[in-house]
Amino acid sequence: MKSSMNGFVQFGWIFDKGKKYSTKAVKGQNIIFNSDHKLPLPAGARKNAALLREFKRTKIEFELVSKGLLWNSTMGRGELKLAPLLTTCELTSTIRLKNEDGDSVGELHVQCSLRRPMQTPEVINEDKFMCVLDNASEFEHAIRVASGESVPASEVETSGEADLPVSRPGKSDLAPSGQERHSVSTEGKAPAEVKQQIPEEGDALLQYLQIPLNWQALLRCTDISTNPSFDALTAEVDSCVKQIEEARAQGKQPPAKVLERKEDAERVKMVLEVAVANEKLSLEDYLALVREAISRDEEIIKGILKLVVHWEKHGMTDKVKEWKATAVALKKRLDIMRAEVKTAEENL
Length: 348
Fold this sequence. Notes:
The chain folds into two domains: 109 residues, C2 domain (Immunoglobulin-like), CATH 2.60.40; 162 residues. Helices cover 42% and strands 14% of the residues. The longest helix has 31 residues. It is elongated and about 90 Å long. About 12% of the residues have low confidence.
């Protein structure tokens, strides 16, 4: 600004007619308003050709207003064209504000962001140099299987359990087909004897409750390194960063488990990025991995709920509390993955 003032910026939005958005009034010369606004879009705007044409022509007019004792006065105006947001997620611009005589009165820095472009997916070319210190053979094996490559039998035997789940639910997480299920016969037994024969946990309890999972799969169900969803991994990293910052703000060391989960999530994200960059994993194969993870988590949640009911009947409150929290965490992850698949399918 050329002179000191007490002012604010206001603007309108074409899809929210009759409403004026404005910043807080700030005094000074080189003013930083630091104001965020969420603007609504009509439902289905990205699929409506008429709305897209209107969006392409849309300009947001910003007004710099000087606040007075009796009335306010407009110092300058400037416009921002939104057409670039049809193909990109972010638009940053410096708008020159002019008064009624056409003289420049200052500049306004504006940044607009969308989750995804209005019309076409954004394509970004990036050159990255990475040094992978962790053994990624398991991930590569999973990616090769997902992309339909033939994998030698010797490699399948020695590759171990893949961190990216590529088998269909019911194969790796379900009880082996050759293993017979058994149940505890309660006929003619005293209640105390029956209770002693019902295991508290493990594969025997799963078989007794007819839950088609194995115990190790349940124990690893919240292991983020086995999840192939980029959005779920990003949410996990953000959650861990928040916990780490909160701990440090209180003068405490972040929990080791949180640091470990953050490292695991970042590592799997990096492997996914490398796989996509090297064209080892197509979008269709990636979505197939996420869908399989969704099916797997759905089956695991059903199994956990059966276990919780069983433990509640037997008064095992500690286990009930622990596994209810596990089910809630899985449900959140499940919602993220479903939303990711839905968004990807809409853009295909």
